[in-house]
Structure prediction request, 240 residues.
Amino acid sequence: MKIMPLPIQVPGFLSVCALVVFSASAQAQELAQVRFEGSVGPGKPGMLVVRVEGMVKQEARKVELELFLAPKTRGGAVAGLIAARLSKAGFDVIHPGGTGSASGGTFMIEDALRLEILAPAGLNTSLGSPSSAPAYFGVVAKLEQKDAFEIQLSTVFRLPVERGTEQIDFLATVEGPVHPTQMVESISTQALKHGLRSERPNSVYWRPLATVKSNTCLGFCSTWNGRPGWGAVLGLVDHR
Prediction:
């Protein structure tokens, strides 16, 4: 585990993704959610990489975890291990518990700034911001793959005049070989087809903005099947 000081100017399904609504003051403390489901494999060990940047005692901190996991290591054990390592590093982690026999596990990180996850084959991974819109989101591709890559994205917006919420779910798919720029283009295209207006802060990042009915995003979630060298990055504060 690598713990590094991070220089930064600070100026903001328990199934797959949870919707948590806070007061305006609580929203300043950005909340990230991670879930692992399934098990590593089949038949081979796999590499899990988790990079987290966040605030610890009003100071920015960065942690990188690189774990070579045995085959059949289950999502519940993986979530518990990562949560424990991050807690030891000083992060404020909310982990509801679970055992190594559980097929899935979830944890949340208070005061998160940025998360990047590359999951091995067999681990279905979810990464989201359950109490706010993401500052940016992108697909990470460390290895070129000939097969198509797909990722499920979901956003929820508050409707005006106490009319509840509006949830938008869509699947972005690109035939291989895939580059992150292509994934962002696919995400933008599919979002628009589903009535979601969005923007691209740069060539490899994307973020949701508004629907026809609302411009108040309450939460975001991404889900994908693990693949060596592939994953996603989520920024909760735009300090790229």
